Structure formats: C-alpha cells, structure tokens
Amino acid sequence: MIRIIIADDHPIVRVGQRVVIEASGKCKVVGEANGPDQLLTLVGSTPCDVIVTDFAMPGDQQADGYGLLGLLHRQYPTLPVVLVTMFANVSTLRSAFAHGAQAVVAKSASARELPLALKAVSEGRTFVSECLRVQLDEACHAQPTQPARLSGKEHEVVRMLASGMTVSQIAARVNRSISTISKQKSTAMQRLCISTDVDLFTYARESGMVP
What we know:
Blueprint: E1 2-7, H1 11-22, E2 27-33, H2 36-45, E3 50-53, H3 65-75, E4 81-85, H4 90-98, E5 103-106, H5 110-122, E6 127-128, H6 130-140, H7 152-162, H8 167-174, H9 178-192, H10 197-206
Parallel strand pairs: 1-2, 1-3, 3-4, 4-5, 5-6
C-alpha cells in the first residue's frame, strides 16, 4: 500500500483527491494539510511514500511554490513529490522539476492523470500532464528530457545576468550593444521555454552557471 500525504488549501479539492487516490485500492491517504506549515509538520511526524501538493497555498511560517518544493527536496531528498497545479505551463514545469518535483499534474486533468503520476513516481519515474507535454513540444520542438542548447554568447549572457549584472553592465563588459544583449537574453529564454527573469535565474543556478 502506497502511503500518500496530500496538501491543498481547498478542503473540497482534498476530498476529491482522496477519492481518486484511494479508488484503486493500492494507495491510502495517511494525512491531509491545508498549507505549507501544516504539510511540513505532517511530513515530519507521519511516515509516507509520496507527497501530493498544490503550488500556491498560504502559509504563516513557510513559503509555498518553489520555496516549498526546494525545502521538501532538501529535507526529504528521497521522498517523491507530485505537484498538482492550475499553473500548468512550460515555465512552471521546468522550474518545478529543477526544485525537486518528480511529477507535475495539471488540476484540469488531475482526476484522470493523478493515479498515473503516483504509479510513475512510486516506480522511480517522472510524470508530466499530457497538456504540458503538448505545450513543451509546441514551444521547444523537444521532449522534456532533451536539454535546450544555448549558444556560447547566450550562455554567457544568462550567466552574467544570474550573477547580478544588468543588461547595460553586460553590454559594457563584453563590448556589445544593449539591444544585442537584450536580444540574446530573449532568445535564450525562448530556447529554454522560460518567461520570467526569476525562472531564468533559477535555471542558471540549477544548471551550475552560478553558485
């Protein structure tokens, strides 16, 4: 029996997830949390095999989102985390996996795909919702396991941005125009299927470009 802890700040969502998770008879929900604070307390006191958590949940002491995923990964590196989220886009997918999630399930498809995600992570595999795989294929013309390839100059720009330099400072450092640096930044983000500076900096850290 696979033991599951679920976390979502909406009780009705947790009720639905419990029904879906336990329908097969192979999984059992051993705890429920309404936010990151309660989740971390519960995981520390209740043995489980998989965590199923929402992305955006209010917390008093602990951050939600990527902060929560990163903390869970650091404290429980062998415990699979399935992220169930309404923020189903390529940027969230890449960042969630970079912060330690083993599966990303879109809330719109969770009733059908959540059991598949649980089976995958319990067997040591990753899982991505079908709608996200389609988005990634359309955006990058590549599978999630195929890393995006940056040119040397794009890699250099991303590394310097992540180290704290501005576009203007980079332009002055490498003797290129500001518009050229901006273009190289934009092209790099398109190749990586990243839409925000925060996710770009996260990618740079996780890929070892900066400490």
